[in-house]
Specification:
The chain is of the alpha+beta class and 261 residues long. The chain contains eight helices and eight strands, in the order αααββαβααββαβαββ. 28% of the residues are buried.
């Protein structure tokens, strides 16, 4: 897969890396626009776009006449507490493993109605904005997708507890907000942890339903078709838009949700 990362996104990634590594801490001033433009060999307009987006995402705070600073509140806590199965199983001293079933790059034309609604994507509008920075190569087909825009990434992962499949994860992520997501090895990197590190979450919503397992899901979870499952559907937001939508299928006789009031 070949893909060009836009210059403004490279600057955003570098700033986030500096913050997460501790080089720039909460309240610290970051490099000036002029210094960043020189470092990355781009115009100040490109730098300004990166800083503007990070400010909208509440990562940075821009102060008139003073400069740009790491926002105080952003890295003291996560706005949305997103628990993941890897944390839960490891805290219970159970052996955890993840197996990636598939990874795909999706263009607007490939989306079903549910995904279009979730991410507010219009095929015509997206296609008209195609540019060189979003040229992709789809691993699943080997086809050159230079005439299409990668709008979403899709990953499917089986999560195991003590060698037994306990959750099947289907996840879709905004490709423009997190362009390097699809390149990660999700047998090692947890999807939720990676997204929280790369793009601050503001809020989220979820539903849990009991559903009979379709044949494909049953096979992946190694249960009988039509067996009961608990399905958690969750969407989280960053900068006012849906960042990721996920369906998590749990074998009903192996998993339960609990908490304290």
């Amino acid at each position: 897969m070949t893909k060009t990362i836009p210059a403004y996104q490279r600057i955003k990634n570098a700033i986030l890396d500096n913050i997460h590594s501790g080089k720039w801490q909460a309240g610290n001033a970051i490099s000036t626009e002029m210094a960043l433009a020189k470092e990355f060999g781009v115009s100040r307009m490109t730098v300004n776009r990166a800083l503007k987006e990070l400010s909208e995402e509440r990562v940075l705070e821009r102060r008139q006449g003073s400069g740009t600073f790491v926002a105080q509140q952003q890295f003291n806590h996560t706005f949305v507490e997103v628990r993941n199965i890897a944390q839960d199983l490891k805290s219970a001293n159970r052996d955890y493993q993840a197996q990636v079933v598939s990874k795909r790059i999706l263009t607007a034309a490939m989306l079903d109605d549910e995904l279009r609604r979730k991410f507010d994507i219009n095929e015509v509008a997206v296609s008209s904005n195609t540019n060189a920075d979003t040229t992709v190569m789809d691993d699943s087909t080997g086809a050159d997708s230079s005439s299409d825009v990668a709008v979403l990434y899709e990953v499917k992962i089986i999560h195991f507890a003590d060698g037994q499949p306990i959750q099947f994860e289907e996840r879709w992520v905004d490709a423009q907000k997190v362009p390097e997501f699809i390149e990660q090895d999700f047998s090692v990197v947890n999807t939720s942890d990676y997204l929280i590190a790369k793009s601050p979450l503001e809020r989220g919503s979820y539903t849990i339903r009991a559903l009979a397992a379709p044949d494909e899901i049953a096979a992946l979870l190694q249960i009988a078709p039509q067996s009961p499952t608990l399905v958690l559907r969750r969407q989280t937001y960053s900068a006012g838009r849906v960042l990721t939508f996920v369906k998590m299928w749990h074998a009903g006789d192996r998993y339960q949700f609990s908490g304290e009031l």
